[in-house]
């Protein structure tokens, strides 16, 4: 997530002499490269010579994902603190920051002014228009934030007639997103589109003897926006960091054991209020904004689209955010998780005109719509969500289902917890390698020639160009199916017991 904080690291006082070539540096050359330099250290030696240290290893999930994309990129950005020059122009990073910043303040304002209420579309769109402005000097004194505070480069959006038109299109993209989200929320809360699955008998069929009224969603309300957990930039939060592990390393020749704290920010958490007319229940939806549609596990496997590699990104540590955010919500609230979603801000073939859902749904057709999307919001909520890109980027936790459960990835509660544990283990393994100075030039590459690799979004391709001349530095990944990932995670949990 664009909003996730970077790992808290020191200036690498004794960096590896050549991380490009050192896969596993000898112990004499290992260092405290990622101990938080902003904390005060108190060291005492135990009887076995191990040093107790008050410092902690602070890491963010986004920085660890960068490590797994290419360890040397992590070394350059967080070790040597080399920051690439960002030109005065609109790029993908600036666009993403614009979307995140406007949504944070617009949704946050709704949560503050209308607690416990589902967003009203026209009011939400009014908030978006307001916070998307570059100049908000006419706002109330206690709310004069503007996107220029997020990144001064945002001023490029007002630098010419062309860029002012681009700024307008970015704003329309957010207005459209609000409309589509409103449509999905409306559909899910009608006719049991998002509901709890009925109990099954021994043969796996619906249990008619113990048949009960269906508990289905009747209200979905924003609960948190940009919810921080742990300490970021020396700013603590109400939610605690994920602190499950310890890292062993060397400081001045002495073995130290440092607690690992994983910190971050969750883009958005919504609460689902559901009932069957007599019994009420609540659950959380963890949402992570993405500029465009992104897969988590993808749709249900088929002959045309078999599950060959849908567990690869999590298995290899390149997609750790959603399950880390879900674990943070799980630890800091007493409300169970219903689902995890990548929410695309910009849909494929999206129109650039602002739409209001009531106006748009009134003119819907059974054929292609003006933006090329076919038959949205006609019968089932999953159709709307699927075309928006939620389907492939979503995971529903049992016993919750949607109106077309075969389209959505559904996992059992114990599988969900096992994957969360597996993700935390991947974070710990990366941090152990970082502490050991194991930071080689080793970008990942899949067996799919059309897929992204560890260089696709790297800011340091020029730095490692010589290393990549013959392509031998790539770390090739074998595809991992979702079921294989779950099996690995469940096996790991059983071994821990």
Automatic annotation (TrEMBL):
InterPro entries: PDDEXK_AddAB-type. Residues 1-12 have a biased composition (Polar residues). GO terms for biological process: DNA repair. Pfam families: PDDEXK_1 (PF12705). Keywords: ATP-binding, DNA damage, DNA repair, Helicase, Hydrolase, Nucleotide-binding. Residues 59-150, 221-445 form the PD-(D/E)XK endonuclease-like domain. Residues 1-49 are annotated as: Disordered. Residues 36-48 have a biased composition (Low complexity). GO terms for molecular function: helicase activity. This is PD-(D/E)XK endonuclease-like domain-containing protein. It comes from Bifidobacterium reuteri.
């Amino acid at each position: 997530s664009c909003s996730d904080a970077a790992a808290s690291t020191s200036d690498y006082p004794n960096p590896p002499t050549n991380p490009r070539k050192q896969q596993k540096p000898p112990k004499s050359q290992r260092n405290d490269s990622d101990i938080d330099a902003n904390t005060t250290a108190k060291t005492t030696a135990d009887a076995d010579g191990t040093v107790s240290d008050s410092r902690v290893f602070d890491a963010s999930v986004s920085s660890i994902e960068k490590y797994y994309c290419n360890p040397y990129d992590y070394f350059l950005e967080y070790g040597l603190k080399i920051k690439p020059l960002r030109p005065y122009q609109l790029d993908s990073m600036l666009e993403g920051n614009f979307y995140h910043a406007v949504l944070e303040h617009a949704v946050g304002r709704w949560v503050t002014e209308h607690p416990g209420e589902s967003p009203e579309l026209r009011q939400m769109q009014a908030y978006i228009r307001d916070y998307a402005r570059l100049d908000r000097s006419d706002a109330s004194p206690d709310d004069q934030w503007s996107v220029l505070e997020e990144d001064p480069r945002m001023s490029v959006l007002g630098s010419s007639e062309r860029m002012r038109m681009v700024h307008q299109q970015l704003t329309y993209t957010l207005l459209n997103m609000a409309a589509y989200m409103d449509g999905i929320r409306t559909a899910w809360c009608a006719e049991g589109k998002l509901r709890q699955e009925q109990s099954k008998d021994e043969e796996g069929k619906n249990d008619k003897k113990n048949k009960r009224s269906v508990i289905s969603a009747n209200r979905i309300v924003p609960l948190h926006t940009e919810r921080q957990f742990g300490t970021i930039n020396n700013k603590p939060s109400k939610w605690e960091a994920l602190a499950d592990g310890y890292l062993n390393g060397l400081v001045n020749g002495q073995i130290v054991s440092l607690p690992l704290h994983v910190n971050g920010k969750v883009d958005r958490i919504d609460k689902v209020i559901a009932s069957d007319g007599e019994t009420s229940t609540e659950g959380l939806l963890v949402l992570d904004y993405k500029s465009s549609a992104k897969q988590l596990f993808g749709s249900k496997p088929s002959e045309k689209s078999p599950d060959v590699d849908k567990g690869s990104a999590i298995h290899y540590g390149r997609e750790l955010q959603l399950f880390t955010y879900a674990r943070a919500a799980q630890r800091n609230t007493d409300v169970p998780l219903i689902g995890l979603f990548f929410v695309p801000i910009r849909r494929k073939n999206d129109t650039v005109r602002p739409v209001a859902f009531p106006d748009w749904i009134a003119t819907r057709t059974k054929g292609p719509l003006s933006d090329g999307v076919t038959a949205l919001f006609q019968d089932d909520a999953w159709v709307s969500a699927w075309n928006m890109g939620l389907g492939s980027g979503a995971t529903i936790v049992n016993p919750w289902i949607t109106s077309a459960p075969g389209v959505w990835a559904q996992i059992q509660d114990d599988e969900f917890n096992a994957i969360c544990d597996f993700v935390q283990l991947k974070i710990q393994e990366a941090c152990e390698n970082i502490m050991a100075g194991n930071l080689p030039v080793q970008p990942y590459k899949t067996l799919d020639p059309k897929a992204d690799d560890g260089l696709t979004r790297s800011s340091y391709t020029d730095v490692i160009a010589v290393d990549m001349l013959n392509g031998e530095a790539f770390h090739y990944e074998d595809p991992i199916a979702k079921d294989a990932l779950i099996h690995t995670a469940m096996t790991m949990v059983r071994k821990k017991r």
